[in-house]
Amino acid sequence: MSSIDNTISLFEEMSQAIATKYLAEVKIMTAAKGERPGFDELMAILKKFEKELTQIGAQTVDTAKKVNNPEIETLTDKLHTIIKSTVEGFIKQL
Prior knowledge:
Elements: H1 3-33, H2 39-66, H3 72-93
């Protein structure tokens, strides 16, 4: 497995772990309130979730740029796809 493939795989695993963390946050809020959080609260959680994934993705790309990885475009595209699919999956689970 190339370093780029390894990076993509690790990012995908990390994205799923972060999604699980945010879903747990929603479940805890639901249990504490006795009802699901309101739309505005869910949107705030979604924005925070997407921002965290995007920051980690940007840091990953920056690190790859520093080591002059020739597959930087592939990495950027794959991470973008992972972020998009993880966010979509998170929304479906709400």
